[in-house]
Design goal:
The chain has 63 residues and is mainly α. 81% of the residues lie in helices and 0% in strands. The protein has one helix and no strands. The relative contact order is 0.06.
Length: 63
């Protein structure tokens, strides 16, 4: 039972699948970067607002 001289002779469909999956992973990763950046901006904005609120309360306590 000879399936070919080399293992990789019949792997063209597998190579195509790997290429497609690689492209999907790269595209997903790039879109995730934007999502993570947006979350980082939201967390940063929340921190600034909390800091402002703390400063306001501190001023009111001191007066």
């Amino acid at each position: 039972m000879d399936n070919g001289k080399y293992f990789w002779e019949n792997t063209k469909p597998m190579k195509n699948l790997i290429a497609i999956l690689s492209l999907v992973i790269v595209a997903t990763s790039l879109s995730a970067c934007n999502t993570v950046k947006g979350v980082g901006q939201d967390v940063s904005a929340t921190g600034r607002d909390l800091s402002k609120a703390a400063s306001t309360v501190e001023r009111k306590i001191q007066n």
